[in-house]
Write a structure and sequence with these properties.
Chain A is of the alpha/beta class and about 300 residues long. Chain A is built from 9 helices and 14 strands. With about 290 residues, chain B is an all-alpha fold. Chain B has 2 domains: about 50 residues; about 230 residues, MetI-like fold, CATH 1.10.3720.10. Classes of the chains: A alpha/beta (about 300), B mainly alpha (about 290), C mainly alpha (about 300).
Chain lengths: ~300, ~290, ~300
């Protein structure tokens, strides 16, 4: 038995060593490819190397779809997409962790700097959503703002059933929340330059579009706002002053609650980053933007 | 006679109290069983119908929403974390059980181990982010995630190995030492082989924790979905993280439940493995 | 393995071990490296402490430790950082979950250890173990889709509430409390039980008056471990809590815990807001250390008493 155990030990050790070897080899080889792009021959027709994209959770799904079809043509380019948050995207581009930062709102004044380049890759509508069983289906911007301020607290005031309204908000710092507050005039400037949110503090807060959608679809008295790109039939989108939130209505400037999706680069772009951005802005890329229910720039 | 019975009853306490307590025992036990069954059946019923071969074996690309890259990443993270933490954990346990003498240093080491075990994963996540990702410039990568996780599972491995080592009868050590073997030799050739099943249990428990972890990995390994061929410096997304991201993006409820069901099956398999090994130890088939 | 084999191998061990003096030096080096490995845990905890505190403390001092810990309003974009509501909610939520989890878990452990028939144990125990290994996101999802609507329809309010947090946390710590309590009940010496039964005490009396006190240190350990898990849980709570950073008016109001505060805003925070989240981590970290010291003291006391 001991002998068997010994042999077994040896085998385990061998496996471990081999695995470590492979891991180290993989690590080294990936370093080589990275170096390769830095000193690489720019005239070579095929691109290689890696593009790291860090930022917004809202932009993530769109960026991923675009990256997948980009990589089908450029087999040697690898695009990593990290969905962490808009502000993390800006931070990552500034400290060099990322090649592209994605942001789902306009940049703030103190975030702008001369070496950052903004690329608007698409627009995204924000749909105000309620539970499917809710009979209210059309509200004006003012009424919606009043609901979110906590001034209207029962659906019957709006012609719906007699139930207290549950407001679902996003977390402080969210790009979607920032854009929504600004567009719905749900913020006021304080003397010291900071903006005060007017959305009721009693609101539920979810940290993601999916969380808002799940909460609203399960709560018959809830109201929230989500990105138009992920809207589906689990929740009901409200018409705003009679206008339905659709890509066409936003293109026609009838539906006005929308915000830009930004990709940010710093300084000189490497060829593979440039190619990725070119692809996104090409008519093929913009066609994909549209088919994903976002609003193309061109 | 009746009086005596009555006195006895009073002395020990009334029957009603007994009955009430007994009722509570049954009530709460079946409540627990009910809730446990409810959760498992709920997730499995909603998830299993959505699992297909395609779902398990294709990449997460474009319209294709397979989870193969996540399965592969999960495997990589497990292997790497276990490779880093197991040797360190075993050596620590050997030091604690075989070499150390009771004193301040040992108490410090034990306190540190216990504290490591109770730190919430979100704090590991924060730490891994500022230390491995930013300070050591490892970026969001397999290696950052695995290093953070290996610290997290270290206490589990140390504890179980310690227990396994303690369970090896002292007569083995004494016999070996009496025959003139050195202490190190005794440990490597006599004590450790007997403790292997116990150590394996520890490793499997750690794997269970790694499989279920999401808060740590989001901040250290990132959430990239590409790549069947993940390298050490690549970002990757394990199944738990994937589940969290799916819930977050809210794109597809079916996919979310399917992933959850796969995860439950994986955990069940790991538990089964651990149970088998534990049973083997009890039976003594490993030679003790 | 057989004894003969054992002896042979030991014999071999000696032959190869007495070969040279170099071996002794080698042994010393290996021994020291074992010690170094054992120090990894201490080193890790030191590095973790330093890094978390280095990120969180400066901003705490800038805001004022007292203001930070006792502030009532968390409005990060208006530079108001007060985490008292979250501290209170973390404590109440944990306490509620631990009380609920302990009551249910303890009775279940008694059932498993003393009353349940074998066939039921064979189903029950793997189920409990499985529940212990399920990722917390799954619990959160279950809570969001099942428990939250249940609370809303039964008691009113939004459903995402302190009560939902307590219930989901209680369910999550059940496996910990059940497994460890069951083990410590089973390891109570048989003589205790037999003695009590022989004296004429009923089974129930024996369990509650004799076995529970005898197993109390194990049960206590299970409660403390459960507390640690409850206070540190993030992803499950995030989905059911409602996450409103104000004082709850009732048990049905939406709430936010310390852990959720970090997980929820980390991705979007910058500057002082980000540092304040690390400061939240510092507070949480201190809670965990205090809990651990308390556990160590109780166990130490118990040991010295015996």
């Amino acid at each position: 038995m001991l002998k068997r155990v010994k042999k077994w030990n040896f085998t385990v050790l061998l496996i471990v060593l081999v695995l470590m070897g492979t891991a180290i080899f993989l690590g080294c080889s990936s370093d080589e490819t990275e170096n390769g792009t830095v000193n690489g021959d720019l005239s070579s027709p095929s691109l290689n190397g890696r593009v790291t994209v860090i930022g917004s959770t809202s932009v993530g799904p769109l960026a991923r779809v675009l990256a997948d079809s980009f990589m089908e043509n450029e087999q040697d380019v690898k695009i990593d997409i990290q969905e962490i948050g808009s502000t993390q995207g800006i931070q990552a581009i500034n400290d060099g962790t990322a090649d592209i930062g994605t942001v789902s709102r306009e940049l703030k004044e103190d975030e702008k700097s001369s070496d950052l380049t903004e690329h608007v890759i698409a627009y995204d509508g924000i749909a105000v959503v309620v539970n499917c069983s809710n009979s209210v289906s059309d509200l004006t911007i003012e009424k919606i703002a009043q609901i979110f301020k906590g001034e209207i607290t029962n659906w019957k005031e709006l012609g719906g059933f007699d139930k207290e309204i549950t407001v679902v908000n996003r977390e402080a710092g969210s790009g979607t929340r920032g854009a929504f507050q600004e567009l719905m005039k749900l913020e006021e400037k304080l003397p010291d330059g900071t903006k005060k949110s007017l959305i009721t503090e009693k609101a539920l807060i979810m940290d993601s579009t999916g969380g808002v959608k799940a909460t609203v679809s399960g709560n018959d008295s809830a109201i929230g706002y989500i990105s138009l790109g992920i809207l589906d039939d689990t929740v009901k989108a409200l018409k705003v002053s009679g206008v339905e939130p659709t890509v066409q209505n936003i293109l026609d400037k009838k539906y006005t609650i929308c915000r830009p999706f930004l990709m940010i680069t710093k300084g000189e772009m490497s060829p593979q980053v440039g190619a990725y951005l070119d692809f996104i802005m090409s008519s093929e890329g913009q066609q994909m933007v549209k088919s994903e229910k976002y609003i193309p720039v061109k | 006679m009746k009086n005596i019975v009555k006195i006895k009853e009073n002395f020990i306490g009334g029957n009603i109290e007994d009955k009430v307590l007994k009722f509570f025992i049954y009530f709460f036990s079946f409540l627990t069983l009910g809730v446990l069954a409810w959760i498992l059946i709920f997730v499995l019923i909603k998830g299993l119908p959505n699992i297909s071969l395609e779902f398990l074996t294709t990449a997460y690309k474009g319209k294709n929403h397979g989870i193969l890259p996540m399965i592969i990443s999960t495997l990589y993270v497990i292997i790497l974390s276990v490779i880093i933490s197991t040797p360190i954990g075993i050596c620590s346990a050997i030091h604690l059980t075989e070499y150390s003498k009771p004193g301040k240093i040992v108490r410090l080491i034990r306190f540190a181990t216990e504290t490591l075990a109770s730190i919430p994963s979100i704090i590991y996540g924060l730490f891994g982010f500022v230390f491995f990702v930013v300070a050591l410039k490892l970026k969001f990568s397999l290696i950052s995630g695995s290093l953070t996780l290996s610290i997290m599972v270290l206490p589990t491995i140390i504890r179980t190995t310690e227990e396994a080592l303690k369970a090896v009868p002292n007569s083995y050590r004494e016999g070996s030492l009496a025959l003139g073997a050195t202490k190190l030799w005794t440990i490597i050739r006599v004590v450790l082989p007997c403790a292997i099943p116990g150590i394996l249990t520890g490793v499997i428990l750690s794997i269970g924790r790694i499989v279920g972890e999401s808060a740590v990995l989001i901040f250290t390994a990132g959430t990239a979905t590409q790549g069947m061929d993940v390298s050490l410096t690549d970002s990757c997304r394990t199944m738990s993280v994937h589940l969290y991201m799916l819930a977050k993006e809210g794109l597809s409820l079916e996919e979310t439940f399917a992933t959850a069901a796969v995860l439950i099956l994986v955990v069940a398999f790991i538990n089964y493995l651990a149970g088998r090994i534990a049973a083997n130890i009890k039976k003594g088939t490993m030679g003790v | 393995m057989t004894k003969e084999e054992n002896i042979i191998s030991i014999d071999k061990g000696i032959k190869s071990s007495v070969r040279g003096r170099k071996k002794i030096l080698f042994e010393l080096i290996v021994e020291k490296s074992f010690f170094l490995c054992a120090c990894t845990a201490v080193l890790s905890i030191a590095v973790i402490t330093v890094y978390i505190f280095a990120q969180g403390l400066p901003v705490m001092i800038k805001i004022g430790v007292i203001d930070f810990v006792t502030g009532h309003f968390w409005r990060p974009l208006e530079n108001q950082f007060g985490i008292l509501p979250m501290i209170v909610v973390s404590l109440i939520g944990t306490l509620g979950a631990v009380v609920l989890g302990t009551v249910v878990g303890l009775f279940t452990a008694i059932f498993l250890a003393e009353i349940a028939p074998d066939w039921l144990i064979r189903i029950f125990r793997p189920a409990v173990e499985l529940l212990a290994g399920i990722p917390s996101v799954v619990y959160g999802f279950f809570g969001l889709i099942v428990i939250v609507p249940l609370i809303r329809n039964t008691f009113g309010g939004p459903g995402n509430s302190l009560l939902a947090v307590i219930i989901i946390l209680a369910i999550m710590i059940l496996p910990t409390i059940i497994s460890i309590s069951e083990i410590s009940l089973r390891s109570v010496p048989k003589e205790y039980k037999e003695g009590s039964l022989a004296l004429g005490a009923s089974q129930i009396k024996t369990i509650f008056k004799v076995m529970l006190p005898a197993a109390s240190s194990g049960i206590l350990a299970s409660i403390v471990l459960g507390t640690g898990r409850a206070i540190g849980e993030t992803m499950a709570v995030l989905l059911v809590a409602g996450n409103t950073p104000v004082f709850p008016e009732s048990i049905l109001s939406p709430v936010r815990t310390l852990t959720v505060n970090i997980a929820m805003e980390m991705g979007y925070a910058q500057g002082m807001h980000r540092e304040a989240l690390f400061a939240t981590g510092v507070v949480l970290f201190i809670f965990i250390i205090v809990l651990n010291v308390a556990l160590n003291l109780t166990i130490y006391k118990k040991e010295s008493r015996i």
